[in-house]
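sry for the spam today, last one i promise. struct tokens for design, 334 residues
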């Protein structure tokens, strides 16, 4: 999830573990715990963009890091706060749960998480977008109300518990919504007599009403959208895989890395003499027939040493605004 949401979740965890003793300082420590895993994004300062993508949600989101971090950061907290009658056990659990719930929340998103690092498998329920106001805003309100209660500890715990229960309940609702969407897509594919190998569905930007579906066939991918307000059948747009564009290079290290990042959902395309690798997991940035752009695409280039290289296609802010406007109308079934 986005950094702000992870701070709120971490703050609530800290409040639950040590709020009775440290009051709002416990929220601060929890917020720090909720922030630490995403510090792996700083890898972009020391390496290339592709490697940075591979590093993100790896070691710092793993169970191994959670345990080690619980002891390390918990010990540092204990040294600072032991004068306030806090125990080492409480400090460990604050950071353990702060780090662990960060990774658990990320599992619900499209990106997924390598929680069992070093095993190269990403767990992803793909039931919530990385930014979802319906998850975050009620949580913020409950945490704020809890932090205001500095004397009435019973009410403080009650508000904090409400925030955790409401946010967790919403996550489980997203799983039910995804199941309904998955059924709707399979039903429509059967109605249209489309033969397919696999189907993946995920919510669009900041909502759980409008969903993207990616359908793999033998030679292409079909992308469609479904809104709970739709009154017409799902329509699919076809994108050929175009595997012949990289014939002979399928086992090249760079292409293998891109395929792993995309979790096997990708196509190749050609524009103005350049070949592009398109990651399909996040759908289209625009559907302009003359300049179709996926949310994540990489253009193949040749570096100064004559080696194959890639550069990520930059996204324009105006394209983002156009996409949000389009999704807002599409969400309503229009």
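last one done:
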């Amino acid at each position: 999830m986005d950094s702000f949401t992870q701070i709120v979740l971490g703050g609530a965890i800290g409040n639950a573990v040590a709020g009775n003793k440290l009051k709002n300082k416990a929220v601060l420590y929890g917020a720090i715990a909720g922030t630490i895993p995403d510090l792996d994004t700083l890898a972009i300062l020391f390496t290339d963009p592709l490697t940075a993508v591979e590093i993100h949600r790896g070691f710092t989101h793993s169970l191994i890091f959670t345990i080690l971090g619980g002891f390390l950061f918990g010990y540092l907290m204990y040294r600072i706060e032991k004068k306030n009658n806090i125990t080492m056990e409480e400090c460990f659990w604050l950071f353990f749960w702060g780090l662990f719930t960060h990774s658990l929340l990320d599992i619900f998103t499209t990106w997924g998480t390598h929680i069992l690092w070093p095993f190269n498998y990403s767990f992803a329920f793909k039931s919530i977008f990385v930014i979802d106001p319906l998850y975050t805003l009620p949580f913020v309100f409950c945490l704020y109300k809890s932090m205001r209660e500095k004397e009435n500890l019973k009410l403080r715990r009650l508000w904090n518990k409400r925030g955790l229960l409401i946010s967790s309940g919403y996550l489980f609702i997203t799983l039910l919504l995804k199941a309904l969407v998955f059924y709707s897509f399979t039903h429509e594919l059967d109605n249209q007599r489309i033969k397919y190998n696999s189907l993946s569905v995920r919510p669009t930007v900041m909502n759980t009403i409008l969903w993207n579906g990616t359908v793999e066939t033998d030679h292409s991918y079909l992308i469609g959208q479904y809104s709970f307000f739709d009154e017409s059948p799902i329509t699919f747009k076809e994108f050929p895989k175009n595997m012949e564009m990289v014939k002979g290079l399928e086992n090249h290290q760079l292409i293998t890395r891109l395929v792993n990042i995309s979790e096997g959902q990708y196509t190749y395309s050609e524009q103005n003499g350049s070949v592009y690798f398109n990651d399909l997991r996040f759908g289209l940035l625009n559907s302009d027939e003359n300049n179709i752009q996926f949310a994540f695409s990489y253009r193949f280039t040749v570096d100064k040493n004559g080696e194959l290289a890639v550069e990520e296609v930059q996204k324009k802010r105006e394209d983002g605004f156009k996409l949000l406007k389009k999704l807002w109308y599409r969400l309503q079934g229009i």
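DSSP finds nine helices and eight strands in the chain. ok im logging off now
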